[in-house]
Amino acid sequence: MPSSALARIRALSGGLSPKLQGIAAHLTDHPQDVVHLSISELADVTHSSEATIFRLCRQLGYKGYQDLKIALAGELVEEPTRNIHEDVLPEDGMMTVAHKIFHANILGITDTLQVLDEAALEEAVRLLNGAKRVCIYAIGGSAVVADDAYHKFMRTGVQCVAHSDSHLQAMTAALLDRECVAFGISHSGSNKDVLEAFKIAKAAGAKTIALTSYRKSPLAQQADVNLYTSTRETSFRTEAIAARIAQLCIVDALYVGLALARREETLRNLQKVREVISAKRI
């Protein structure tokens, strides 16, 4: 079996069904699409479905779409250091590296501000403010953002929890009801555990808010309210560095919106928090 992803696709495409052959041909002609697009976006481009794309990945010998994405990304990369950051060069000093990373993050924040939907922000604050309970769900790198949301929202008096454990996500989602909100955070919008928690929460009657970078992702399709980040991700990274910063900015905006809606309670809570935290400082 060829070790090259493109060679493998070409070698195996002859034994595929006509539909899968068409998608395989698209991959060999436009391999960068796999790197840049989510599975739902690729399905859109190839006029197929996510299930068909996943079936193709399995028949090509990959565990799934993410596995194929990683294989192709490593193959298309021109310089090994671009796996870290596309703009970074081997000869760059640390200050140059820092400037490039900071610039990418600043662009991510600016781009996200341009695509933010005011009505969606207001509706998200309204749902969070009126919720009996808020469960925040995220996995991996996005779990840091979920923890930050919990750390901030609790100060406003909103009853909330953040879970990155898939079992706790499913269990708590099942206990939600129509007065509750599930808040899912996923850069790709395709994380299986967060998606499962969303499905369970919706079945229980809860409202859902998604924070993601992909408008056609499965998570966005399930959500009642969508908040999108827009980051100029490099072609060959599997983790969203700049997206995390943009997500944190949106969380901050939601927190301030909640604080304004719950001004008196938030001010009382902040005073209580300051008093107990001061005892922990030297």
Structure summary:
The protein has 282 residues and is an alpha/beta fold. The chain is built from 14 helices and five strands. The protein folds into two domains: 5-80, Winged helix-like DNA-binding domain superfamily/Winged helix DNA-binding domain (Arc Repressor Mutant, subunit A), CATH 1.10.10; 101-278, Rossmann fold (3-Layer(aba) Sandwich), CATH 3.40.50.
What features would you describe in this structure?
The structure is a single chain. Helix content is 58%, strand content 9%. It has a 5-stranded parallel β-sheet with strand order 2-1-3-4-5, with helices on both faces. It has helices at residues 5-12, 18-29, 32-36, 39-45, 50-59, 65-76, 94-115, 118-130, 142-153, 166-174, 192-203, 218-222, 241-261, 263-278, and strands at residues 133-137, 160-163, 180-185, 207-212, 225-228. Strand 4 (207-212), helix 12 (218-222) and strand 5 (225-228) form a beta-alpha-beta unit. Mean pLDDT is 87; it is low at 78-85 and 234-239. The protein has 282 residues and is α/β, with parallel strands linked by helices. Helix 4 (39-45) packs across helix 5 and helix 13 (241-261) packs across helix 14 (263-278). The protein has 2 domains: 5-80, Orthogonal Bundle (Arc Repressor Mutant, subunit A), CATH 1.10.10; 101-278, Glucose-6-phosphate isomerase like protein, domain 1 (Rossmann fold, 3-Layer(aba) Sandwich).
